[in-house]
Structure formats: C-alpha cells, structure tokens
Amino acid sequence: MKSFEIRESYLDFFKNRGHVIEKSDTLIPKNDPTLLFTSAGMVQFKPYYTGEVPVPYRRATTVQKCLRAGGKANDLEEVGKTSRHLTFFEMLGNFSFGDYFKREAIQWAWEYSTQIMKIKPEQIWVSVYEEDDEAFDIWNKEIGVPEKRIVRLGAKDNFWGPAGDSGACGPCSELLFDKGEEIDPHATPENDPHERFLEFWNLVFPQYDQQVDGTRLPLKNRGIDTGMGLERMCLLLQNKTTVFDTDVLFPIIETTQEIAACSYQENPVPFRVIADHIRALSFMTADGILPANEGRGYVWRRILRRASRFGREIGLVKPFLYKISKVVIQNMGKYYPELIETQTQIEKIIHLEEERFGSTLSRGMDILKELFEDMNSKGEKLIPGEILFKLHDTYGFPLDIVKDMAEEKGFELDEMGYSEAKEKQREATRKTWVGSGQQEISPVYHQILAQHGETEFIGYEQNTAVCKIVAIVKENNAVNVLKEGEEGCVILNKTPFYAESGGQVGDIGTLAGLDGKTLVEVTDTKKVLDKLFVHYVKVINGQLKTDDDINAIIDYKRRLTIQNHHTATHLLQSALRDILGEHVHQCGSMVSEERLRFDFTHFEALGYDRILDIEKWVNEKIREDYDVNVLYLPIDEAKKLGAMALFGEKYGDIVRVVKINGISTEFCGGCHVSRTGVIGGFKILSESSVSAGVRRIEAICGEPFIQWIQKTERMIKELSESINSSPEGLQERILQIIEENKKLYKELEKWKRQALLGEGKDLLKNVKSVDGVNFITLELENEDINQARTLVDHLKDKIKSGIVVIGIKYEDKATFCVGVTKDLIHKFSSSDIVNQLAQIVGGKGGGRKDFAQAGGKDIEKFNEAIEHVPNIIKMFNKADKS
C-alpha cells in the first residue's frame, strides 16, 4: 500500500465507526505554553479530556503532522542513526472523549491491522502497562493473542503523557511488528538491540489529569488517544528495512542522490538526515516558524545547519536544501495545501539561511584556526568542552570534524565537558521555554467557559452596551465582588471590547454601574481559550458584583485610530505584493493606536526609493476612498475569492473576510474603517530585518501621521533658525557646514601631528635599555588613535633599533600601541607584547609583528601596565634565547 492509501483507509475506517474527521493542527500548539511543537495527535484535543471546554463530538480521527525536535519530545540527534527515528512525521490517530474505552480501542486496532492492513496476526506482539490487567485480559481472552506475545512493561515504556507538563495521561498498550527470529532469536520487546520489533501503534487510555506539580486527578472525560506512525506503517506494508526507503521519504533521497558526489548505498546516513530535515523545515516554514536565535526559530536553524553539515559529507557544499524542498511540496502538497500556498517563501527562506550558514561555517573555521594558534602559544593541548560546544552550537561544527582537525594538530578534546555544556543548554531550554509567550492558562478560566459558555463579541457594531457580569477573577481565583481600589479580571456575557488577537491590541475604556455610583477602568482586553474575553480592570469608585448589569464603554477615539492602522496594514500588504512581488506574505503584525508594525517575507532591504514607492501606492488608495466590506464565507469560497490567510494560522469552516474592492481580500477578525479615505494619510517610519527572509515595516496613519508632520516641521524650523538658514536652504547650508568642518578638522590634525612629532624629538632623550634592547614608553591622554599610530612609526624611524610603547588614557578605557623595528621582529612580536599589556587592564588586542594595538577597561591599572614594559621585554628576550 502507498502512503496515500494508508491515510485514506485509516480515516475511512474510523469515519465508518462514528468518528468525525478533524483537520491536522499546525505545528505550533494553540493555548499550550508547555509545548514547543505539536508532538502528538492528541495535543489539539487536550481540553476535551479534562472537561475544560464543551466537547463538540465524542469521537474524532486525524492525520496529524508532528515534530519532535525540541523541548520534552526531541528525536533530533537520533535521526539517521536508527531505522525509524524522525523529527517530522505524520501520526494517524483515533480519539474518544468520555465515550468508548479500552475494549473498542483494542478491537478496532486489531481489526484494522489484520483485516485492512493484512498484517499476519502471528507477527503482532503487544505490550501493556504492568498493572493493567484489564488490557491484558482483552488482548488475551477476547482478541486471542497468546500470553507469550503479550509483554508487561513499566511506566517508562507503557504509561503515556502528558503532552507537556500537565494534562491527560494514562497507561498504554503498544502493537509491535515482529520482523522474525532470524534477526535475533533471543530478542524481546524490552531487550531488542538489533531492532527485531517495531512499534507501529500506541493505544493510550487517558484516565488521569496530571497537574503541574505532578499529582494526578481522575480525568473528567476518560477516553482513548491512539497514535500510529504513518512512516512506520509504510515500512511494514511496503516491506522496507527503514522508514527512509518508503514512498514518503525515498523520493527526497533520490533527488538528493542526483546532485550528490556519492550514492545512497555508499553512505546512507547523510541522505536520511537530509530527507527528514527538509520535510521538517518545509512544514515549519509553512506554519510560520522562521529562523531565529531562540525558541522555535532556533530549532529551525539547528535543523537546517545539521542537514547542511551532513550535505557536506556527500559533496554538497553550495546551498542545495531549497532545491530539495520542491520534492516535499510536490509529494505532500495535495494533503497539506499550505505547502503549495507558501512554496516561494519556503524555498527562498531556506536558500537565504543556507547562504548565511555557509558564511558562519567559514567563520567557525577561522575561529578554530585562531584557537589552535592561541593554544600552541600557551603550550595547551586540551580543548575545553565549552569551546567545543560553542563551535557545534553557534558555528555548526559537529564534534567529529573538530576531533579530526584537532588530532591532526596534536590536540585533545574535553568530550566530557562538551557533553556537560550540551546538557546544560538543554536544561536551560526546558526551563525557559514558555511556548508562544503566554502564561499558562489558569484552571479558573476553563471552569468559567464550561459554566457560562463563550463571550459574545458585539464590538463590530456597537461601542457601548449593557452587559451582565458572569464572572470575576482576582489572582487566578473566582470571586463574587471586586471592591474600590482593587484590580482583577471581569468576564461579561457579551462585550463591545475587542480582545487582543490577530495583531490588534485589546480595547480599553470603562465599565459604569447603572446606578451611576460604580466606575471601573478597563486597562486591557485579552482573549483566553479563544472564546473568553477577559477585561483587565481597576475599580475607581463603588464595586463590581457577579450577575450585575454594567454599561461597557470602549475608548472609541482610540479604537478609530487602531482601525486606521489595521486597514492600512491590508493596503500595505497589497502594495508590497504589487511592488516587490507575490512572494510577499504576512508573517505577523501589531496594530495599536500609536502605530502599525508589519512583518513580511522578503529577502533584502527595500532601499529609500522603494519605500517612497510603497508610501505613494498606499496614499493613492487612501485618497481614492475605496469601500471596505466585511463578508462571512465558507473557507473554500473565501479562498476562491483569493483571500489571503495569515502564515501558519488555522481557520474554521466559516471565515470573516475583509475586502477592499479591487485592492485587497484577507481573512481577518479585526476592526476596520468603512472607507479607505477615513485613514487620512500613511507614513513609513522604518524598515528593518527581523530574521532570515523576514523584513519589518513600522508606519503611522491618521492623527499620529499629522502629529509626525507637525513635529518634523517644528524640528526643521528650529534647526534652520539655529544655523541662520531658511527651511528651503537647510540642506545646502548643512552640506556647506560639513565641508567647512572637514577642512578645519584636517587643519587641526595637521597641527596636532606636527606638535606630536616635534615632541617626539625630545622624547628620544628618554630611550632606555633592558638586556641590550632599546625601548621608549610614552603616556598620552584622550589622544586620537591614528595620531598615536603615526607617532609610533615616527619614533621607530628615529630610534633605529628598539621597541616603542604608547599608552593612551581615556575616561573609561586604556589603549596601547606597540611598534617593533624591523631588525628585532625575529625576536619580538608587537602582538605578543601588546597582549601582555592588555591582560593587565582586563582587555585584549592583536596585530602584526611590527605593529599592534589593544585596549582594556581597567583604567586604574594603566600605570602598572606601563611600568611592566621592561619585564615584558625581558620575558620575551629570555624565551628567544632559550
């Protein structure tokens, strides 16, 4: 069976047994700050098991894209070493939320495996949790699996979850395929060094709700959570020895083989790593995960660098991964259309990051070379573990390459220190990871949602409304009253306050009692669990009580400015796509009353003329005063209209579309103006880089735009007056002043140089000698470094044979310039001498044998360094004689 047949047969099998086919979630877990990536099919269903939210159906089935490359679930380093480990994979799953339990799950797993997949019953072994007699009896007495093929295992192997630090968990039962006694007649599932057994389906029986502190409570909706690896099932049914030889991965290997310097058979591991990693990179990029120095983006970067390093093992030195990504998109785009929709971005971002890594790798080679030279000069032979890890982590050097290069030069590696540094970083990542940046959602909000349902948002049509207080939260506890002077959170049955989402900030305003006595300031509005609008409040007068009616009033003037900026982001995206190209895609945004920020895919700085073109385009559309319409459409119909979606976002069946006729059509839940003319004007304040392939524009509209014009005019007026110029002649006058200053500076430098060189004649009287070597030291204050260099060269010429040391004192640092005459550079190096001086003042430096400079911040030890010059000369003179 081909992979697409397995996908379809699995979904059909469980659909026929009352399961709703649910779409795959994105790789970025929603509302779960404990998870780095979606690592299992059940992640999107976690709240259904715990009863935190109403369950829309009791049975579901999915084919879920998963990633295990960071955080708690991490298989990155195992890829390529075994026949089955992957970072990216597809998990087939069937789920029950308070419906069927162990018996049906086991019966259907057996039926699908033996009757649909045609696996021979005698080739299936099962494992159960050591205390789970119920599962053991179902397998043995009802299914008929002999006791000798049922293995009881401990919690490490057969107790699953939770996904993250909290949530549903429970015992599990695994189905394992027995490849045959000929592989290892003595192997058992718990002792299998030669991979005779392959786990292909895990049946989890969630019956506990693990808390953050590790305690386990009974699960409200006891159920079923199963996971079958598609790639592993392909391995079995296509009779392959590894998952990499199946139809989901082998086409990638074949394409890589066409451009590699050797064949897959000659060196399989690099091909396997590349095949897995390019799938991960393609899907991560399609879901809006982009290269960065922390969090998910850091994992993206590690995966690319690992694939790139392995590419070098098979002769692929130039960027190549972006080419291979086309195979992933071609083979999987039918099932995951987001790959096709973002193909341009996927290829360009990967290509750009490959080029950057090439430069980083070259820099790493230089650092390694400098390290060897430095260690040789100090007589050291052991490369510290922390340096080894930095080379691996920052510059992409695998330990084995460093080891080969080091052994050639006679160095040893502190591999234990390397392992400790690596584990230290892993632990730090686990401790500091907070998912999307949200705080973990307090259970009180789950309870409120379950009891009162979701908040009705009426803010598209109304700016004020009488609403009922359904809940009050103070310090993560539900309370009935919030008194004068207290702060807390309020949930209403309906609200005109927009909750922060889609890049638009939350509304602020007031809640006013109908009795005229209560006044409450709303400082922010946020969305929790995607359905609750939480108003952050401070009681100014009176008190708030649950079940009271309250008049909710937004700050409408602020909202209008936010609406200007939000509609302008839609115009901006259209301008960018029209002027730069259709590869431009939104990666994120922030829309507030002060300004807008728009992140988009592009691969170089825009340049001033391009920015002017974009401003002109947007302002033309504002002046032409287009209608802005809002539509609610089925998602497929919206896509046919050409509506653009946010990078990596998951949408429901019915979507809200904001349409500016003939200009822009986007999925959007935010607040907008009714006509573009309302925006007034548009000005770009800055354009910068966010990460590889992602640029950022910050801009203003409406009232902030007018304020910017007035502020700029005032600055020009005051500046013009200060230099006796008109605003029209300001540029010419400033250029004139700059030219005058250049001439004056040259003249000043000329006089200073003459003064220094003249002083240098007198300084020759101070030449001293140590061990037959002439030297001269000079102390200056706040002198220009270029002048000091000139003076070093001048004194070297005058002294004929010797060493010149000039120290310059600044307020916050000390700088040294050292020169050695040509006849002595076989014995002394300016670089060595200056580094000795720099160490005294807590700094470092470098240069050539005949000239070098260095600096340090310990200004208190400046005199000590100067006084130490004779000793330094003695030290190097003795070393030369020995």
Which helices and strands, and how do they pair?
Elements: H1 3-15, E1 20-21, H2 46-50, E2 59-67, E3 69-70, E4 73-74, E5 88-97, H3 102-116, E6 124-129, H4 133-143, E7 150-153, H5 155-158, E8 159-160, E9 167-178, E10 197-204, E11 208-210, E12 216-218, E13 223-229, H6 230-237, H7 250-259, H8 268-286, H9 295-313, H10 321-332, H11 338-341, H12 343-378, E14 382-383, H13 385-393, H14 399-408, E15 412-413, H15 415-432, H16 443-452, E16 456-457, E17 464-474, E18 477-479, E19 481-482, E20 487-492, E21 494-495, E22 509-513, E23 519-528, E24 532-541, E25 544-545, E26 549-554, H17 556-579, E27 586-591, E28 596-601, H18 608-623, E29 628-634, H19 635-640, E30 654-660, E31 664-667, E32 682-691, E33 694-701, H20 702-722, H21 730-763, E34 768-770, E35 773-781, H22 785-799, E36 803-809, E37 814-820, H23 830-840, E38 844-847, E39 851-856, H24 862-867, H25 869-881
Parallel strand pairs: 1-2, 6-7, 14-15, 16-21, 35-36
Antiparallel strand pairs: 2-5, 3-4, 5-13, 6-9, 8-9, 9-10, 9-11, 10-13, 11-12, 17-18, 17-20, 17-26, 19-25, 20-24, 22-23, 22-26, 23-24, 27-28, 28-33, 29-30, 30-31, 32-33, 34-35, 36-37, 37-39, 38-39
Helix pairs in contact: 3-4, 7-8, 7-10, 8-9, 8-10, 8-12, 9-12, 10-12, 13-15, 17-18, 21-22
